[in-house]
Structures are given as structure tokens and as C-alpha cells.
Amino acid sequence: MKLTLQVTKTDGETFEVQTNLFVIVAWERKFKRKSAELSNGAIGHEDLLFMAYEAAKCHNIPVPMSFDEFIKRTDDIDVISEPVNPTEQDSTEGN
User: Fold this and answer.
1) Which of 19, 32, 37, 87 has its CA 20 to 30 A from that of 26?
2) Strand locations in the chain, DSSP E?
3) Residue 31 backbone class (left: φ over 0; alpha: ψ -120 to 50; beta: rest)
4) pLDDT of the residue at 36
5) Distance CA 47, CA 30 (A)
6) What's the CA gap between 1 and 85, in Å, rounded?
């Protein structure tokens, strides 16, 4: 399961990151939630920001040392591509 996130910093700079399994598991551990919740829309800004923060570190994109400082320096976050629910994908194949 991967998400592509676009982060807009307060200085106007933007960057995109893609989550990976490490980021998703780190999110599950920190927030005591399951990745299945990503497909039903039960996700907030803090969740997206945490994933972007961890993904940026994985992709060697410079970020502040603390997550809170990353939040302070972020103006907006958007989901560019969302995970596909496998059951929905199977039902659309062959149409």
C-alpha cells in the first residue's frame, strides 16, 4: 500500500513523497491503527503529515529534527494518489 503525498512548505516550496511499508508500519505503531483504515477515509491531517515526514526522511529529503517543527513549517498537504482497495480493483477488471 502506497500513498503519494504533496507537501507545501510555508516558504512556498513543494515536494512529493511516496510512502513505503516502513512508513506505513511506523504510522500503525505510533497511532495504534491499521492500514486498512486508509482505504475507508478515516485518516486525518496528523496522519498524513506523519507519513510525509517519515517518507521524506526515507527519501533523504531534509526535514526538521522534530515532527512538530515539520508541522509548523508545512502550509498544506495533499494526497496525490490513494491506495486502491483490492476488492474494488478486482471488480473493475475486465469491464
Assistant:
1) 87
2) 4-9, 14-18, 74-81
3) alpha
4) 81
5) 10
6) 9
